Amino acid sequence: MGDRFVVIPVPKREEESPHAVDEDISPVEEDGGVSPAGGRQHEQSGGKRSEESTREDGIPRESSPFISNADTEQDSYYDGKNMALFEEEMDSNPMVSSLLNKLANYTNLTQGVVEHEEAENEEGAKRKTVKNPQMGTFIGVYLPCMQNILGVILFLRLTWIVGTAGVLETFAIVFMCCSCTMLTAISMSAIATNGVVPAGGSYYMISRSLGPEFGGAVGLCFYLGTTFAGSMYILGTIEIFLTYIVPNAAIFAAEKKEDAAEAMLNNMRIYGTCCLLFMALVVFVGVKYVNKLALVFLSCVVLSILATYAGVIKTVIEPPDFPVCLLGNRSLENHDFDKCLKTEVFGNATVSTELWKLFCDSPFLNASCDEYFASNNVSEIQGIPGLLSGVISDNLWSNYGPTGMLVEKKGQPSLPAQDASRDGYLPYVFNDIATSFMLLVGIYFPSVTGIMAGSNRSGDLRDAQRSIPTGTILAIATTSFIYMSCVVLFGACIEGVVLRDKFGDSVKRNLVIGTLAWPSPWVIVIGSFFSCCGAGLQSLTGAPRLLQAIARDGIVPFLQVFGHGKANGEPTWALLLTAGICEIGILIASLDAVAPILSMFFLMCYLFVNLACAVQTLLRTPNWRPRFKFYHWTLSFLGMSLCLSLMFISSWYYALVAMLIAGCIYKYIEYRGAEKEWGDGIRGLSLNAARYALIRLEEAPPHTKNWRPQLLVLLNLDAELGVKHRRLLSFTTQLKAGKGLTIIGSVLEGTYMSKAAEAKRSEQSAMLAEKTKGFCHVVASSNLRDGFSHLIQTAGLGGMKHNSVLMAWPTSWKHTQDSVSRRNFIETVRETTAAHQALLVAKNVDGFPGNQERLEGTIDVWWIVHDGGLLMLLPFLLRQHKVWRKCKMRLFTVAQLDDNSIQMKKDLQMFLYQLRLDAEVEVVEMHERDISAFTYEKTLVMEQRSQMLKQMQLSRTEREREIQSIADESRSSIKRKNRLGNELQLPLDHTRQGEVAEPASAQLIHDRNTKSHATLNDKAGPVPDRVHMTWTKEKLIGERNRQREANVGVRDLFNMKPNQSNVRRMHTAVELNKAIGSKSRGAQLVLLNMPGPPKNKGGDENYMEFLEVLMEGLPRVLLVRGSGREVITIYS
């Protein structure tokens, strides 16, 4: 039978009155149907109420995406619902329809918009409807990647790299770098298609795949790389401006040629700082202006590349005219002269040229000239001979050299000069830096970065999981083709001396790639200028948002201030920091010096992207299901290896610095405690490694040399579930020099569901306060004894089980009325012995030192019996900790009458020497003495007390058992009376005069014990003052005889004699206590062999008394009971 329900569509208007709901009630549908008007609303709500729904009092009620917690609301909401069976789970487990509705309404906003929306929510405003992202693959991924990849290095340095390294080696450099980015793009595509990637792109992927530590480290490296990329683009912009557009705008002008380089660096610093401030101001005012100009900048890049290819084609038809002047085989800077001639004829007179004046001391023909100038002729060659000239054969091989090496044309006749000291002052073209294959790799690599541009825009994409792989891989393929083709075309079209001329001095200060362009070199100059401007603005826009994302994740505490910004979410503080770091790169002022720095950071980022994909693939985690299928862990591993190789190839010291920075950030995040849990791959890797290690550990028991204390610490909790003895955790930390396992266990009386979580939180807070690293284990049990037994049996896993138990001495065992604490302690001793585990019992544990204290004195070891050597190992472990480091170890042992104490001391010293332990050795002689009256009396008192406790316990148990049997008998008697009415009964209220005393005494017994019985059972109801019972005569006589026997037993306590075995044990305890007190009264800690419990459980009370006497008067004592196996060895 269908349910009747009403669907109420509520318009989401803020000004709507609460009572306006009644006007839009939709028709009521029968049999569970839904009206057309209301059906969609009900489907989309997924079982939740509208935000405008009202309570009975007319006050609007706020709604949550799931079911409200109010009981009254749940009751009214679930009336007649088919899902009432699951209503109690709806708070934590929403209905499927509600979940699907949330997924359908998921809006992936760009960074900045999200913060703006959150700010409005905090102010009470409603979330505004945001249009779904509509960018496709071409506009959203392909073009941004193209714009970021093609940039400053292509226009300013690629021709120089081709001329210096040669076509073959440059092709190898380009191939390596493009292969690195392609492999990284494949790994990135797999990660990006393994679920929704919010705005944040690469940082989000790395952090969620490798965890907060790696995410923070690599995210900051990526941020620094993006920031230094901004410096590089700004320096490229200023270099184009000052070198090729307005050379006369230089503030610092060099009077001498040797000062030109320094003057240029100072000009770069001044103009670069001004450019940085202007760009930062543009970004601060509004990112929308940067985005509007993005298409203009991209158009400049595309037009420049098209002009280059057009120029190559034109060289086949008509090569451009860019003559290069050579003196001998040396290339000359020709911006100070017009004619490549030493002299020229005007009429009938021969006169010197401007070139003559540069090499000679006067313009006259008889002037003193440079030796090389006088010995060699000048010649002129074409700088762009053309595609079909065959010049590529001269450009195949490398021409590396030191700083100041002259650019020379191979195969050109030349007579060397004897004196080359003045070459640096003459207008030759020479290397401004020392060149090598490794340096060129570092300079070139930034030209292939920018592959993350698509993933950074993932919030704007219509289908990010499809667009990111396709667009990124196509962009890398396109740019790789452009770079490789440019390498070959540059080598085939341009003369080698021009290629090696970094700043175009030999072609009248023209941009070298511009000389190849058609229709004019200014197309490349203007295009590259705006391209570098756009790339710099993009870097200054993206880097602060990346830093803001890291800061808002909260994984690096000192960066949290940079998570704040303007009201609309713009990262103002992050922009200031980015501009400051960017200024550092500008002060370096050399594009060639900045490029390797950002190469390191980008390579570090790409390395971890590949690592993330490889780890996820190898672990085969169930959540690793990328839609992009063309990946393999070998490709990711190859990409990771290639990134690492390129880091050390380009600059090994920069690589080490980048790794050091990443490592410091990693350790800082780990130290400060990254509380984020993102289901990262490193956690999965840890689980796999732990499983493998556990399986290996299970194969065989550990060798003595590998033994270390793996502690199970038994903690007691108070009524508020707080830890009673926190210093037990401090002592555990101090013992952790062995780096073993630590399990903190506690037992709750009751059910697991009610108290376990709170108890675990209490333990973890105590462990955090005492800096104890380990695992919490809470067991709920009906009583403490069973709970501790379960802990001892089940704590740990496989080979990582505890081998030692640490607990506090039960100080209240004498004072408690019952014997629960005593029995728990002795049973724990028995169970650890049966499980072959060591037992450490700390007495006066609250007086043990905290982790901030520093002790000086001695740690005294009283070695009475040998049970594995744990007594000697523990002081060594303690002294590794700073609390006990200044304490010395003393070892005492006991010699009997027949022992040779001198020889014992020598043997013991040799044994300690072989064990590599430093300790003072002393042998204490304990001769046979008569048992003193004190010992005899102490033993007697102990046994009397023990016997009395037994009788009291027995009497109470018997009485309680008797009361129960009386109640059972009473019930059965009443039933028999109702049936037969012929059984002899003796009601307590209708007895004969002679029998009054007996039932009265029985009634007294019942009244006296009802209270004690009720305390044992918490749920026992109220007991009436008098209870009518049915008694038999035999029962009353038996009860009277038992009372008479009990009275006789009490009288016998004062006539008993102590057991001789107990007297001897007490004598030993008293004598040992005297010896320990005389030698170790001032020791910081006394370690002592713990005697074993009696095999007969009847002597448990006496055992506790013996231990009390043994430790009497000592401030800090650690009783040690070994496991029976050797834990220390003299062998290496």
From TrEMBL:
Localization: Cell membrane
Keyword Phosphoprotein belongs to the record: yes
Domain Amino acid permease/ SLC12A: from-to ranges: 141-313, 434-712
GO terms for cellular component: plasma membrane; synapse
Membrane protein topology class: Multi-pass membrane protein
SLC12A transporter C-terminal domain segment(s): 842-978, 1063-1132
InterPro entries registered for this protein in UniProt: AA-permease/SLC12A_dom, KCL_cotranspt, SLC12_C, SLC12A_fam
One Pfam family in the UniProt entry: SLC12
Gene Ontology biological process terms, A to Z: cell volume homeostasis; chemical synaptic transmission; chloride ion homeostasis; potassium ion homeostasis; potassium ion import across plasma membrane
Coiled coil: none
Sequence ranges of Basic and acidic residues compositional bias: 11-22, 40-60
Record-annotated membrane-spanning stretches: 136-158, 170-193, 214-235, 268-287, 294-313, 433-453, 473-499, 519-537, 573-591, 597-619, 631-655
Principal place of residence: membrane
The keyword GTP-binding belongs to this UniProt entry's keyword annotation: no
The family this protein is said to belong to: Belongs to the SLC12A transporter family. K/Cl co-transporter subfamily.
Protein name, per record: Solute carrier family 12 member 7
Lineage: Eukaryota, Metazoa, Chordata, Craniata, Vertebrata
Gene expressing this chain: SLC12A7
